[in-house]
Amino acid sequence: LYIKQGANLFTICLGDFIEALAAIIKMGIDTVQFGVSKNGQCDIVKGDTDGYLFTKTKNYDDFIRRMSNQYRIVIGHNRAATKGKISAENAHPFREKHIVLVHNGTINNKDDLKKDIEVDSHAIAHALAEHDPVQALGKIDGAYALVWWDESDGTLNLARNSQRPLVLMEFETFYLISSEPGLPLWLNQRDGRKPNNMDLVPT
Fold it and tell me: Residue 141: its pLDDT value, please?
């Protein structure tokens, strides 16, 4: 995930973002990304193929063109299916009302959050759309690192429990958030960019 501070974010990091999405195939087959524009609107692209093939599609090319001049937040996610079949529909993010969410982890009580939902992460999005975040997260039994955009108040939200990492890195002109920090950190260091600060998001 890249959060823009300066106008030159995507001229610096676009290539690294694409490479990270393509390279981290081990995280899963379903691939997705979404961008948040300057006015807080979300643009979502989903696929049921690995990250490398996903970056070769026309939908991805169109997204990249919009990404270069419209977005201030960009999120990429590779899903290893643990609940629900592999499909574009079951790929992250899940949108429920004003909530757009990606989730790393597996929870055990999906039906307690929302019945008749195939994917446990989708159930978390429902819970966050219906309840205060603290109340919603208190209902979760299982592992989670979460990133969600709340369209109702224009906030990006991070949460994790002790079973999953989530790292916040502050660079000169952008923030980077990752549950797998090694690859994006290496991609940036390869191009001479080192984080000024790097912190584990508190539980």
Answer: 97
